[in-house]
Structures are given as structure tokens and as C-alpha cells.
Amino acid sequence: MASSMKFLCVLGLILLIGSVVDGAGECGRSSPDNEAMKLAPCAGAAQDANAAVPGGCCSQIKRFSQNPKCLCAVLLSDTAKASGVQPEVALTIPKRCNFANRPVGYKCGAYTLP
Prior knowledge:
This protein has about 110 residues and is mainly α. Helices cover about 50% and strands about 5% of the residues.
């Protein structure tokens, strides 16, 4: 019994690693939680719709704006939530950075990019 449980755990780990290495996630080879760590400059702007958006934040968000699925996954990630990010505010950052080619109207979970 113990050996079959150990086998299942090892098999599960291999499958998990395989899915990460495959790069089939919203953000390619990196997880949304790892990508969320790169948005530290956006912390204040993601919690307060009236806060100025720092240039470093706009630079990072611009990278994600090219891939709306990744942007949504990052802004709705466990890391973002644990950091106090308010999704309805965070999703306004591309507009507040004045990006002309932002993914307007893209559905992001229960939210829509303005």
C-alpha cells in the first residue's frame, strides 16, 4: 500500500513538472504567481484607482498587455490577491498608463478591461 501511494505521488510530481515545462500556461513557461512578483511597482496603483501609476509599473504592464490571458491570470493570481490587489482597480492600469493598443473589452474573469 505504501509503495503504491509513493508511486502515485511520484507520478503526480512528474505530471506537474511536465505541465510546467511544457509552457502551456497563460504566461508560457512562468506561472502567473511568479509573473505577479514582477508587478511590485504597481502595488499602490492596483489598490487605489486615484493613485498615480509609476513608470516602472507601466513598463511591466505593457509587457503583459500583449497577452491579455496572462495579464488576467497575473492580476487574479493568488500572489496578487495576497498582496491586496483589487482586480477591478488593477485592470484599469493599462488605461491609466495611456496605452493606445490595450485589450479594451477583454473579459477577465468576472471583470472587463476598460
